[in-house]
Amino acid sequence: MVIPMWFYKIARLFARMLIYSVARVHVEGKEYFSQPPPFILATNHLTSWDPPVILAMWPPPAHLTVLAADKWRKVLPILLLFNAMGGIWVKRGEVDRQALRACVDVLKNGGAMGMSPEGTRSRTGALQQGRSGVAYLALKADVPIIPIALWGVEQIAHNRRMLRRTDVTMRIGQPLKMDPALSLDQNTDRLMRAIAAMLPTQYRGVYGQ
User: Fold this and answer.
1) Which of 48, 70, 78, 149 has the most crowded Cβ, counting Cβ within 10 A?
2) How far is CA 168 from CA 49, 53, 143, 171, in A?
């Protein structure tokens, strides 16, 4: 499905207005904005604010395709917006081969994707064990992964109620190529440790050592 660029620009403008109303985002590693697609943005996952923060801050011409849990199909506004932006629905709790094929197609056609190797939000704020899906896609499509460390977003909900903006940090790391000589688990460990190294100590979780 080809999404008109004007629609994506409107969605990104809306995301920027939303994020700027609730947060001050400090971006580190802006030099990696120049990385041309295809690539995968891989970030730790703290809250539902993560995707709009990344969408708002990552500049054109990259058109980010994101994934969403199949359960959100039941929410009509999300269903319509997500479909209009060319998002990919994922069935949780199983290997969704149709979604994997759709992701590979996006990347092999020169697209960019935003994903979380953890697969779900962290309840503690610390990194959980990474899953192998992101490494698999990067190897399958032969694209680099750009690691992103994000923190501060977990304070947005509380600070909104207090009518305060939140300081959020988005730290971007050097693009990382997966090594076909290593296993998926080994490549995933490399990626997760790259993300952990950019996070403050208290967010590193199982990758803290």
Assistant:
1) 149
2) 11, 9, 28, 10
Residue-wise pLDDT tens digits, 54-82: 989 999 888 888 887 777 677 666 666 67
Tallying the residues shown for the chain, one arrives at 209
Q: Is 175 helix (H, G, I), strand (E, B) or coil?
A: coil
| 205 occurs within a structural domain | no
| Residue 208 in domain | no
Amino acid at site 163: L
Q: Which residues lie closer than 8 Å to 127 by C-beta, 6 or more apart?
A: 44, 118, 192, 195, 196, 199, 203, 204, 205, 206, 207, 208
β-strand partners of 123: none
Query: Is 21 domain-assigned?
Result: yes
